[in-house]
Specification:
Two copies of one chain form a homodimer.
Chain A lengths: L2 E11 L2 H9 L11 E7 L2 E7 L7 H8 L4 E8 L15 E5 L2 E10 L18 H17 L6 H15 L4 E7 L4 E5 L4 E6 L4 E3 L6 E3 L9 E6 L10 E2 L4 E6 L2 E7 L9
Antiparallel strand pairs in A: 1-4, 1-12, 2-3, 2-4, 5-6, 6-7, 7-8, 8-14, 9-12, 9-13, 10-11, 14-15
Helix pairs in contact in A: 1-2
Chain lengths: 267, 267
């Protein structure tokens, strides 16, 4: 299994603090040694850093943890390979373009028997179940909406419907962003918090690093952090319910919809 | 205008030496201050480093010039913006997936009136003429060959035909790679050399750095370097003729075809 880290903000913010803790789990305080990656949106552009090395040893991860790249949407991933070998093309997050926007996707879970028929508009480069899910989601979005990107809520409800169609085939925690908003699906385990005024001090779980956000922020700043497991030990992280799909926009959890097949909840 | 740098090799090779010289031209010895980028293929995977900052000042460029990433196909670009603002989404190289392979493209030149009708399969994210050319090339390749990637020579001749259709609309020096081979189009200015045994000493033009390749190579290594302007001052660079499209594979210029509209050569 893997771990996910996402950030969605109302102003461009760097993720150095959270990433420093997350990075330790890639071979240091955690077992996710099989590569790591992080994607930053800056406007419509995206920067993607990928490395099949453990993040705790990676010169590129070291740069990323120290070099403040300000972004409103970030997705990061550390990998413990369960499906697909340890290779660059199997390293998350994955990136594709749809509707003139980059889309970034990272997955934690397993969908080992998910081999959808794809029409060639998005084809996996590597051999992970995760990239197959991503290609299938984008193909379905394009098929549904043609050449025009729908609004955020329409995207959320369409992603819910698509997720429902495949969620019973495995474990599907994922983060997905088009640079405007961030979708987070919890099929098993995912947490989040929103930092907003009054800002206070946060202390990492995985390294003895403390930050006083009140010194670094302006009163209207708002930052949502989504992570497989809480990154700090003195803040309140919300445990996202299994079978929920969330829309984060402008640093807030704007909407949450259920993705349980009706039968599984006994309704 | 911009400058291009490409590398195609028969064994994974790092580009630290050539990139160190190239990097200086992005705001140091050259005027190309409007961003830079570099893409490395490793197997089917690709790493793309992009920065809208001048390469000479960039912490990421510094890392790339010192961190040996071994690759058989590399494309780099330093930008002097002529069309499209200085933003991350306008920074070359551009990346898309086609046929389950990443494709990387960088352009030097200008195609200011090139606004093709696109069917939505590849849509520019930024507003450069270069990304429009890239999307148009990939759309045409997919339309022509459906879901199966043709062989290298078929790709070369198809790219020649496509380039011929648009070459009279501007200046179109480009590098394009799918990780297997590298295509280089010279509409105006491009040079290359092949380093092979017996290897000797090379000295950069833009920095006082010398490398003795005989100490770093094995007898069968073969590395083609393609650059807008020669990067070293003690090696023989071949001046590629205007109106030629080249296929580089395994560190050699395998094939070269003309891309002059027949009329322009007076045939």
């Amino acid at each position: 299994m893997c771990e996910l880290l996402g950030m969605n903000c109302n102003v461009p913010t760097d993720i150095c603090f959270s990433f420093s803790g997350f990075q330790q789990r890639g071979g240091g305080t955690g077992v996710h040694r099989d590569g790591w990656g992080i994607a930053f949106f800056e406007g419509k552009g995206a920067r993607l850093f990928l490395d099949p090395e453990p993040s705790v040893n990676s010169a590129i991860a070291q740069l990323v943890s120290q070099y403040p790249i300000r972004s409103r949407n970030v997705i990061a991933h550390i990998r413990k390979a369960t499906h697909g070998s340890v290779r660059l093309e199997n390293t998350h997050p994955f990136m594709r373009e749809l509707w003139g926007h980059h889309w970034i996707f990272a997955h934690n879970g397993k969908m080992p028997d998910f081999y959808p028929e794809l029409n060639g508009s998005f084809t996996p480069v590597g051999d992970t179940d995760s990239e197959r899910v991503f290609c299938w989601l984008l193909e379905n979005l394009r098929t549904r909406f043609g050449q025009i990107m729908p609004d955020r809520l329409t995207l959320l409800h369409t992603l819910r419907e698509l997720t429902l169609r495949i969620a019973d085939q495995g474990i599907l925690n994922f983060l997905l962003s088009n640079g405007d908003c961030l979708f987070a699906h919890c099929s098993e385990r995912l947490h989040y918090l929103v930092r907003r005024a009054p800002f206070s001090v946060a202390h990492l779980k995985d390294q003895d690093i403390t930050v006083d956000f009140s010194e670094l922020t302006r009163p209207n700043d708002r930052v949502a952090i989504i992570a497989t497991l809480p990154l700090t030990d003195n803040e309140t992280w919300l445990n996202m319910a299994a079978g929920t799909l969330w829309l984060f926009y402008d640093g807030e959890a704007v909407e949450c919809v259920e993705t349980h097949p009706a039968g599984r909840l006994g309704r």
